[in-house]
Design a protein that fits this description.
- The chain has 3 helices and no strands.
- With 65 residues, the protein is mostly helical.
Length: 65
């Protein structure tokens, strides 16, 4: 939560939107114990998806000889 909160606090002001505000408030609430960390994580993930911050999932196949 600390890193997510830090990222949101450092987010450039022109790029802050309603999703940013909701995610930041959720992270702060989780840090103070007002909501569950998993709830804040879900809110942050929604923010990250909205802003294309998540790396795509990769399927890795290993072949051995």
């Amino acid at each position: 939560m600390t890193q997510a909160c830090r990222l949101l606090l450092e987010w450039a002001a022109p790029g802050r939107d309603r999703a940013h505000t909701i995610a930041l408030n959720a992270c702060k609430a989780a840090l103070t114990g007002d909501i569950e960390a998993e709830t804040a994580r879900s809110v942050f993930v929604a923010f990250a998806e909205r802003h294309d911050l998540l790396a795509p999932e990769l399927t890795v196949c290993c072949y051995f000889r």
